Amino acid sequence: MRIKLISLGILTLAMQWCIAKEGYKITCKFSGIPAEKCFLANHFGDKQYIQDSCEADRSGNFVFQGSKSLPGGMYLVVLPSKRYLEVMIDKEQFFSIEGDSTLSPEMVKVKGSTDNKQFYDYLAYISAKNKAIQPLRDRYNALSAEEQKTSHVREQMKAIDDDVANYKDDFMKKNPQAFLTAIFNYSESPDVPEPPVNPDGSIDSNFAYNYYKGHFWDKINFADARMLRTPIYHQKLVEYFDKLVYQIPDSINKEADMMVIKAEADTEVWKYTVWFITYHFETSKIMGLDAVFVHMVNNYYKRPKAYWLSDDGLYKIQERAKQLDPILLGKKVRNIVLQDSLEHYRSMYDIRNKYTLLLFWDPDCGHCQKVVPKVRDFYDKTKQNGIDLEVYGVCTEAEVEKWKKYMREKNLNWINVADFKFRDNFRHDFDISTTPQIFLLDTDKKLIAKKLEIEQVEDLIKRREGKEN
Q1: What is the spatial distance between Cα 460 and Cα 304, in angstroms, rounded to a whole number?
Q2: Model pTM?
Q3: Contact 355/367 with Cβ under 8 angstroms?
Q4: How far apart are CA 467 and CA 469, in angstroms?
Q5: DSSP states of 419-465 as a string?
Q6: How confident is the model at residue 451 (pLDDT cuts 50, 70, 90)?
Q7: What rounded mean pLDDT belongs to the chain?
Q8: C-alpha span between 382 and 389 (Å, rounded)
Q9: Would the CA dihedral through 344, 347, 350, 356 be positive or negative?
Q10: Secondary structure letter of residue 244 according to DSSP
Q11: Tell me: the pLDDT tens digits for 1-57?
Q12: End-to-end Cα distance, the chain
């Protein structure tokens, strides 16, 4: 009975200890700061989000405290001056950190958190190495190109870089489970070896690129959601998709699907990866990459996969993809049949020219008033230069007489049509939210390019004509 009571007492104490350790408490003291509000924020992707706030007293003391534990990641303690220092929050969520208003790593003292003790030891080490290498950089940069070749300064700088690399390697070997080890792995880029020499003595000029790209994700643990609450994963996604993947939809879609499979190791990582690729290419300034957005929505924005979206949010993004799908580059756009100034119906599909310039414009639009005369000058030039092009100009707004008057005054001698009764849904179908909008179509009315400046049309046709010649 006594043993059972003792065991029960130990169990009760253990339960009380677990309950006491729920939540978080970060006790801070930074001398030299004003008695104002401080914030605790976390990284998430390329943004930061406030998680807590409190007032510092006159001695620079303040405490962030909550009843619910924080998800692991890199957090920011933001002082009244808007300056901040980063802290690691993972399993240890009850600790203290002390420093001064300079936020110098050498002055920071941490108690109760091995992660942050290791982190600030590293930052202090790096700070000392930076101070040592900066005069060497200055001396090296002051040398001429010839002097740099024979200078020993470069070797001295390399020695310092090697010291830092050895520090990190040694730390990771001794602390394989540390959060800082994970950060080092997230941040590491592939070390590209010398390319192999082929039997004929040649070297593959693409070796470095292929090796770097092929090993880019080697050190990333996709099951670790902490990396979402650092800037690193987002930065690596940007580098990979913008610099290492060919900027054409087929290549990006293939890589996107591969990344989504990698990210299945963790639900949060999967969600962020899908969101990033979708949003990144929906907002891309490179023409044609909206095809990646459509691909992502069609494949991943369905129930139960898109669990984080409301029904309304899911419907909106699906409808947006449906709207863009018919006007992706290379697709045959749907026909437009509208009345001209004599009320005769004119079909865009009846145009048999090699190129059709589809122009959406409005005579009351200030920007249209600048662009439309340029389109006219370009149109006249194509006739003089023997380029087989016709313009199908669609007036989106304005009064009939105002439209006719503008066409007469500006000598718009192409096919001019309008829809003053609003019976055609071209505004939605061609994604016309602003004017002017210029689309370039081929003979079969397949989309060559869209939402162009008129100068781009001229350059594009020149390049296409040059290729064919």
Answers
A1: 43
A2: 0.89
A3: no
A4: 5
A5: -TT----HHHHTT-SSS-EEEEE-TT-BEEEES--HHHHHHHHHHHH
A6: very high
A7: 93
A8: 7
A9: positive
A10: I
A11: 444 444 545 444 444 444 447 899 999 999 999 999 999 999 999 999 999 999 999
A12: 99
- The Cα 265–Cα 153 span in angstroms is 46
Q: Cite the DSSP H helix spans in 215-354.
A: 232-239, 249-263, 267-282, 290-300, 311-324
The pair of three-digit structure tokens given for residue 453, joined into one six-digit string = 């400046």
Beta-strand relationship, 345-347 and 61-66 = unpaired
Tokens 């005369």 belong to 373
Q: Whole-angstrom Cα distance, residue 105 to residue 376?
A: 64
Q: Which has the closest alpha carbon to 45: 309, 255, 276, 280?
A: 276
Cα–Cα distance, 119 to 184 (Å, whole number): 11
Closest CA to 164 of 126, 195, 197: 126
State the angle between helix axes of 153-174 and 114-142 in degrees (0 to 180), rounded to the nearest 10: 170
- For residue 422, what pLDDT is reported? 86
Q: Which range among 145-149, 202-206, 323-327 shows the weakest confidence by mean pLDDT?
A: 145-149
Q: Is 27 helix (H, G, I), strand (E, B) or coil?
A: strand
Helix (H) or strand (E) holding 170: helix 153-174
Residue found under tokens 């006594």: 2
Distance CA 407, CA 410 (A): 5
φ, ψ (nearest 5 deg) of residue 104: -65, 125
Identify the residue whose tokens are 């200890």: 17
d(CA 370, CA 357): 17
